Structures are given as structure tokens and as C-alpha cells.
Amino acid sequence: MTLRYLRSALPVGAALVVTLLLGACANLLGEPTPARTGVGTSPGTAGGESFSLVTPQEYEQQSPTLGVKIEIEAPAELKALLERHLDLVRLGSIQREEVDDTEWARLIDASPLQVRQLLQTEGYFAPVVRIERAPGRATGQPDLVRLMVEPSTRARVSRVTIEVEGELERGATAGDPYAQGMLAQLRNAWELPEGADFRNPDWGDAKSTALARLRAAGYATAVWSGTGADVNVERNEVRLFLVADSGPLFRLGQLQVEGLAAQDPETVRNLAFTRRGVPVSETLLLDFQERLQKSGLFESVSVTLDPDLNKAGAADVIVRLREAPLQIYTFGVGFSANTGARASVEHLYRRVFGLPASSRLKIEVGQLRQAWDAELSGRPNERLYRNLLGGAVERLVSDTDVVLSQRLRLGRAQDTQRLERLFFTEAERSSRRIKAGGRNDALALSLNFHGGWRDLDSALLPTLGETLAVQVGVGQSSGTDADRGIFGRLYGRLTVYRPLGRAWYGQARVEAGRVFLGSRMVVPDSLKWRAGGDESVRGYSFRSLGPVVDGAVGSGIVLFTSSVELARPFLDSMPSLWGAVFVDAGNAAATTKGALKPAYGAGVGVRWRSPVGPLRIDVAYGNETRKARLHFSVGIAF
Is 210 found in the same domain as 118? Predict the structure, then answer.
């Protein structure tokens, strides 16, 4: 026996309409006829537990005219479905006098067919349905109707056939790589494959997802020209057939930009980072929109495709913008166990002297760190590269010394969806004053590359993804009582985030650096490293781990740190408040010959993604100091 099951399950609501109409007609015939009993059977599946819509206690508390008590014996998965949609259940709580025995008989006789129709939507095509009815009016009790459902085995998908029409079919036949790749993806990513249990909701979801994927790939007007589910009841199998009409492939034509006043249309076109004629996919539109948002030039951004079929070969993309203010000041306060309390002010000017360039100036004053940082940056070109000129002055205080650094750089930066690149030349000078006495100066001129890659589910509290930072530099240095010479510098930092089970999350970090230079050479202190602090080895104060020279901790030419952390939300109702346990290890050294002895720290912490910014509190025990240390950081910008 084969049942043709098209688009969705057989209409269930039709049975309700017919029943209500028949009920209305029956009420015109006169008084009810005497009660009767009966049992009905129909193909159907197993087991379950009893469910009563009206308990005897509830019946006694209600009007004595309440007419029917209904019990359903079915698996828990199916009980809720029958409770919501079965006409017999819906009408079972009305008063006895409102429906006569003839009408009740019609409701009961219609129930097996309606049960089969409902169970077909869940993939059960051969259920056994039994109905028992016992009158209770003579004893002052409601009539009893018991429905027993045995659903048997859910049908499985035995075959899936997906075909296409329109431009996608023509392109795939002609050997177009984009069309062939899209057709393969449409078939391979189908969400109700062979061997899967068949359910009508899953069938509908799979069709919606596949059509959305096709539209997102540039076939914006794609529709299903035909879909069907062919059910073989005897073999308990379902064959799925689908034909998609892709319509035309929309390709990029003109950008229609709205809302510009101070900024240049050329900047918007460059941020599209694509060429005319490429397919207008959902990814292309979203990436373009995100680049406009990250540029910092606009308060609101909307990028949409004009779905005009007559212009599909050169479609318009409509960009609606609202520009950000030309100047803005940002004030911030915060506290960190690394550098203590701090306050900052930042000024951003988005149109310097009327030119397509932005300037940024930030001043930060804290207990252990004072800094001035400025940058003048041009607009991105068609490859998203922008030129920049920057400078910085930083004064950093530790337990044993004070380091003053000045830096001037000229470079070229590129920011894409996941990747950041910065090429620059830099002149840097540092002066280190040791609190116990003594001073060292160093000067360096270098060529550098800094790269960053990120793929995170959240910037504030990530649970899945990776970040990677890489730094490469080569230059010439000189300093106090040191030889002039060539040096090289390498640095890398990898952080991985992963969910572990149902509620736990893991984080692992490894960081390493090395400066290559002669034995009588020096480089500015900011090009070397120390360990310890919030983002390094917890349990130790900021920049407190490094080579000790003359009783003072200095910076090393070798760095290695690592960290492993497990965290989970305290409560399911508060997903932004986490608890964590962690172990850190690492140090910095002046040489590579066995001098890098790791220091260990371990502890517990709290993470809170607060409305004003991320807050982190850690208590860590340092193995070297044999003391516990509080690490606390929070930042607020306004």
C-alpha cells in the first residue's frame, strides 16, 4: 500500500469543521436519544500511560451536567499532540445536554481517522486505535470514553531526490563552478537525509532551510516548484522529491548609497571589498554591512538587495546610512590589579581638516601606568588598506623600576572580517630607571608586521572559537654601554575556547616570544617581556616575573606563558554570571640556556558580562611567593 503525502500532513482542521456542522444539524432534531456503548478499531502503535482530562474529583466539584470523561492511553510524545488537536478532546468538556447521543457517536466514529491523520504528521502511518465508551448518566457520573493508541514504528526516509530548474540548472549543466558548487551544497546539506526518522515538522523545516540557503547564495527569488513525500505504508518508508526553481542569479551592479553628508561615497564603495558581477550572496551583504559598522564612521547601517528581476544581471545594492558625529569624546574609569585605578579620555575626529581621514587621541592616567597615544589614519582603499601615522608615550611603574618609552610609527593597516594586518616602521626609545639605583637607555629603528586572526562567538564572554596574534620585527638597536647591531623579534599568542559538555566551558592559552640579538646588544624595554598579572600568570603582581639583575626584576628576551581554565554559569537563569577554576604557568628569562624556570599559579574566579562592561575577579595562589593574590578588572566607558 502506498500513500501519496504531499507538502504536509492531511488536513486535520477539516474534520473539526465537519464535526461542528454536523453537531449544529443534530441539535435541530430534538431531544437526545438513549445512551449507547461501542468499541471502534483502526490500524495503529504501542503503549503509553493513561491521561484523564477530567478527574473524578474535578467532576464532583463541577456542574452535574458535565457530560464526558476522556482517557487517552498513548506514548508521552503523542499525548500532547492528541490533547491539543483531537476534536473529541476539545468537545469533551461541554455540558451533556448540549450534544445528543447521535452527535457523540459521530464524534467517536470520526476519532480513528483523525488520530491517524494526526499521527501521520509525526511519521506513524500504521497506528492501531481502539475506542471504548461507557455511559455514566444513570449513576450520576460522566460518560467515559477511553482512547487507546498503539503507534507502531516511525517511518524512515528511504530516498531523497533534489532537482533544480532555472538559471542554477542551466549553469550547472554548462559546467559553471559556482552553480555546480551551489547544487552540490543544496544536496549535501539537506537536513532530512536517507535513514532519518520522518516527521512533518522536520520535513517543513528542511524545505525552509534549503530554500533559505539557495536564496542566500544569490538566487533571491528561488521557490519550490514542487515537493512531495511518497509513503509506502507496508515498508514503512518515505521517499522525498523536491524541485527548486532557482530563478535568476543576482549579480552585483551599482551601489545606491543614501544618507551621506560629510563622508565620501568612495569610502563606502571601497568598504564593499568586491567587484561588479559577483553573485550577491547573503554573506557578501552581511560582511559589507559589518565593515561599514566597524569603520566607526556611521551610527546605523543597512545593506539590502533590490530584487528587481529585470536587473538581476546587474542588481542594485541599496546602502542606507546615518553618519556618526564628526567629533566625539569618550571618558572612562576602571580598575585592574595590574595597573591599579585609572581614568581616561579619548577624542575622535572623523574628518580632519575636511579631508577623508580620522584622528584619535587618548590620554590615560593610572596609579602604575600613564600613557598618551595618538594616531592619524586615512580611509581604506579598494583592498581595505589604510595609511596611518601614530605616536605614543608610556610610563610604566613596577615594584623594582620605572620604564619610560616613546614610540613613533608610520604604517599601513588592513582590517578584514577575521584578519587584521599591520605593516609599519617604528622608531622607539626607552629609559629604564632602577629604584635601587642606575639607569639604562636604548634606541631602536625597526620594520614590523603585526597580525591578528579571530573567530569567536562572542567578544565579551567567548565560549567557542580561537584568536591568534603574531608579531615579527627586524631592526637596528643601540644603547647605554652596548654595541650597535641588528636584532630580530618573534612573538605569538594563541587562545582557544571550547564548550565541554552541557554546561562547562574550557579556555586554553599559550604565549611565546624571543628577541634575537648579540651578547653585547640591548633593545628598548618595550620590545622585551615580563610575566605576571591578569593576562599572564595569575598569583603574581603585574610584570613581577623576569630575570633578576642586581636584586631588581628586569625584562627578558625569552617569554613563555600558558593557561588552562574551566568555567560554567552559576545558574541557568543567570547565563552571564560564571564561576571559573584555572592554572597558569610561565616566566621570562634573559637567556635561552636553561634560565626559563616556569612559575605556577592556580585559583578560582568569577566572570560577569555586566551591562557596563566585562568584570573579572580572580583569587590565585602563587607557587613561588606562597601567597594568594586578588586579580580584579572592570572598565566603564561613557
Answer: no
C-alpha angle 293-298-302 in degrees, rounded to nearest 5: 65
Cell digits of residue 285: 551583504
Select from 280, 308, 323 the last residue of a domain: 323
**Which cell is 243 given?**
524541485
- Each residue's pLDDT tens digit, 493-545: 999 999 998 889 999 999 999 999 998 999 998 899 999 998 899 999 988 99
What mean pLDDT is reported for the chain?
Answer: 85
Is pLDDT of 88 > 80? no
Number of H helices, E strands in the chain: 10, 30
Is residue 1 situated within a structural domain? Answer: no
Q: Which range among 329-343, 378-392, 416-430, 435-449 shows the weakest confidence by mean pLDDT?
A: 329-343
Select from 122, 150, 178 the last residue of a domain.
150
Domain that holds residue 235: 156-245
Q: Is 510 exposed, middle or buried (0-12, 13-18, 19+ CB in 10 A)?
A: middle
Domain match, 392 and 280 both: no
Interval 366-384 mean pLDDT: 94
Express each pLDDT in 1-25 by its tens digit.
Answer: 444 444 434 343 333 333 333 343 3
Considering the domain architecture, whether residues 314 and 415 belong to the same structural domain is answered as no
Q: Taking the model in full, what pTM does it have?
A: 0.69
Q: How far is the CA of 536 from the CAs of 223, 609, 626, in angstroms?
A: 54, 21, 18
Residue with cell string 580572580: 618
The vertex-456 CA angle with 454 and 459, nearest 5°, equals 100
The answer on 579 and 502 residing in a single domain is: yes
- Number of structural domains found in the chain: 4
